[in-house]
Design a protein that fits this description.
Blueprint (H helix, E strand, L loop, with lengths): L7 H6 L7 E4 L3 E5 L9 E5 L11 H21 L4 E5 L15 E6 L14 H16 L1
Antiparallel strand pairs: 1-2, 2-3, 3-5, 4-5
The structure holds guanosine-5'-monophosphate.
Length: 139
């Protein structure tokens, strides 16, 4: 399996497609999922190319999981969450749809199920959530 540099997330990382960015550091980039399965659904990707966990380097994985922890802690506060679900899919039979490594961060509330996949979010609400998350990070 080879990396396709024209996948959607590669284009987002290059700034060729828009996204609601939350955070970036030298190695990782965080943005809101456009079809959130929970309010505040974030995606954490390495800035450098790899399809998924199966071909990622130790450095890419380490950077992603450290950023994932930071964003999970942020989400707990930002959305007054009761817990966090992490998801990560590998290759199409494993549930992967976009072939640039990413970890899903899903803020959870007691008794609230995940929304079904494939439902587009309201862009104004995504913008509001991204602004709120960036403001909390800047504190
Ligand atoms: P996976 O590859 O882990 O199955 O999921 C890909 C995720 O990317 C899905 O949750 C989907 O909603 C999200 N997604 C697909 N296209 C875009 C896009 O253009 N922008 C953003 N922000 N998210 C996307």
């Amino acid at each position: 399996m080879t990396y396709d540099p024209d996948n959607i997330f590669a284009k987002i990382l290059r700034g060729e497609l828009p996204c609601h960015k939350i955070y970036e550091d030298t190695d990782t980039f965080v943005f809101l999922d456009i079809m959130p399965r929970a309010t505040g659904h974030m995606l954490v990707s390495p800035k450098t190319p790899c399809r998924n966990v199966l071909d990622a380097s130790a450095e890419q994985l380490a950077a992603c999981i450290m950023t994932t922890q930071k964003m999970a802690q942020l989400a707990m506060t930002a959305f007054a969450a009761d817990g966090i679900t992490l998801q990560q899919f590998n290759e199409r039979p494993g549930g992967q749809e976009v072939f640039h490594l990413h970890f899903h961060i899903l803020p959870r509330h007691a008794g609230v199920s995940l929304r079904p996949p494939g439902q587009m979010a309201d862009q104004a609400q995504l913008k509001e959530h991204a602004e709120m998350l960036r403001a909390l990070l800047a504190k």
